[in-house]
Amino acid sequence: MKICRVVIIAKAPLAGMCKTRLIPALGADGAAALAAQMLHRAVRTAIGAQLGSVELCAAPSAAHPVWQTLGLTAALDWSDQGEGDLGQRMARAAERTLARGEHLILVGSDCPTLTAAHLRDAAQALRDGKAALIPTFDGGYALLGLAKMQAALFTDMPWSTSVVARITLERLAQTGMPVHIGPTLHDIDEPADLVHLPPDFSRLVKDTESHIAQDLHDA
Known about the structure:
Elements lengths: L3 E8 L11 H26 L5 E6 L17 E4 L5 H14 L3 E5 L8 H12 L3 E5 L5 E6 L17 H12 L3 E3 L20 H17 L1
Parallel strand pairs: 1-2, 1-4, 2-3, 5-7
Antiparallel strand pairs: 4-6, 5-6
Helix pairs in contact: 1-5
């Protein structure tokens, strides 16, 4: 049975540089704190699925000191996303994983309702000769699983639009490969998405909003 590697495509939770669309609701520091919490959740979920190696594909470089401040588990493999658009960065991660003979599950850190069970279902689909995809309500996807490289899934894609999952599925259909499609989940990208955070995230958001309100009052 082939090993399945989970690769987390992640941006460092630096204030003002991550989750910028949440800044109007949470402030730069609050958005970064939420990004850090979601990253920890993604790492725990991937390791908890017990599928094989878990790799954090990092931007900026894994050598950036911010990564050392997060207290992430030593069980992670690390790699750099490198240059290019999202498709180019994901394609490099996919190509090197699949070239090693491993199955691949690509995820981000923006979907805290993605569970270890979702990952295990995707891994089973790969063993059954299928691809795997978990769509999100904004038209993207939270997970992509592949057993062989499909370069067309990463090129000329209108990233961050509402048609990414649809086009990805269309291109997979053109290969003749069956696809396991998981339940549609919520990414946390916009202020309106905050209502979809799991209950254990609520205190962070409420505390951040309270601090912002107090800062505005003091001003």
